[in-house]
Write a structure and sequence with these properties.
Elements: E1 2-3, E2 6-7, E3 14-20, H1 45-58, E4 62-66, H2 79-96, E5 100-104, H3 108-117, E6 121-124, H4 133-139, E7 143-147, H5 165-182, E8 190-193, H6 202-210, E9 223-225, H7 230-236, H8 244-256, E10 261-264, H9 267-289
Parallel strand pairs: 3-4, 3-10, 4-5, 5-6, 6-7, 7-8, 9-10
Antiparallel strand pairs: 1-2
Length: 290
């Protein structure tokens, strides 16, 4: 796929490291606070840069920067607050590191500012449905990840009624892809995400995981984000800070079903899962040749 002025090879799955510059994300929201003892959250840009350096050293090819929490029940933030959190971090990373930068946003003004600062990808939980978002992506020649979600983060768990969750997610993503291409989007700049945990029950999440390969019919890269999520906690009984093993187990199953990009808090462990997966595929290919 195309990301900025580059082409990202996905013959081997790649890791997208998570960098939440928010005070209220479900897992690591306050870790990058300039002054954790104050109520007014400000991002420590130097600390953010050090965290991205660590993720890059562990194997991440992309870093995803989010300034607005989209966990269930999350409250929206103002435009200025999101800009103040995200853009200085994008600028610092692109000025100092050779890593692809994604912004986790739905806001057109943030998309434009991030593109001007050097971001290559927009990772949008609303699939560019907010007014002006698609235009901002096209104007800046950015790539986009389209995720399935119903409603808004604050209300999405009220919208979990499906007849066939896999087919409904597939149809939604298929339609959004058609709409983007009709608007002039380069197909090689589109990624899809089934939206684990977004307007889904535990059963829906695992049905999507089991049939993830259905999305391969879209002939686009599949991004998954399962790291430390409630589907792991509900399955294992573990709190957020003890969900690494469960997250890696789900990741391994998703890789087997065609996931090409893995969004994670835990880059090193996820890279190990990818290496083991690739070794298995290599052994299977060798057996077929025999």
């Amino acid at each position: 796929m195309k990301l900025g002025g580059r082409q990202l090879q996905l013959s081997t799955p790649v890791v997208m490291g998570i960098l939440n510059v928010t005070p209220d994300s479900f897992s690591d929201g306050s870790l990058l606070a300039l002054n954790p003892s104050t109520k007014n959250f400000q991002v420590d840009v130097d600390k953010a840069l050090r965290q991205v350096i660590r993720m890059q050293q562990e194997g991440a090819l992309i870093v995803d920067i989010g300034g607005e929490s989209t966990r269930p029940g999350a409250e929206p933030v103002s435009l200025q607050e999101e800009l103040d959190r995200v853009i200085p971090v994008v600028e610092r990373i692109t000025a100092n590191l050779d890593i692809l930068v994604s912004v986790d946003t739905s806001t057109p003004q943030v998309i434009r500012a991030a593109g001007n600062a050097g971001a290559a990808l927009v990772n949008d939980v609303r699939a560019l449905r907010r007014e002006g978002a698609l235009e901002a992506v096209l104007e800046n020649n950015l790539s986009a990840c389209l995720m399935h979600m119903r409603g808004e983060p604050g209300t999405m768990q009220q919208h979990i009624q499906y007849t066939d969750v896999v087919e409904e997610v597939f149809s939604f993503l298929q339609q959004r892809v058609k709409e983007l291409i009709s608007a002039g989007m380069d197909r090689m700049r589109i990624v899809v995400d089934p939206g684990f945990g977004f307007a889904k029950s535990l059963e829906h999440n695992f049905e999507l995981l089991d049939r993830l390969d259905r999305l391969l019919a879209l002939e686009l890269p599949i991004l998954i984000g399962v790291s430390r999520k409630s589907m792991i906690g509900q399955s294992t009984g573990r709190p957020v800070n003890q969900r690494l093993a469960g997250s890696i187990a789900v990741t391994a199953l998703a890789l087997e079903r065609g996931a090409g990009i893995v969004r994670t808090h835990d880059v090193a462990a996820t890279m190990d899962a990818i290496r083991v997966h690739c070794q298995l595929k290599k052994a299977a290919a060798g057996k077929e040749r025999l």
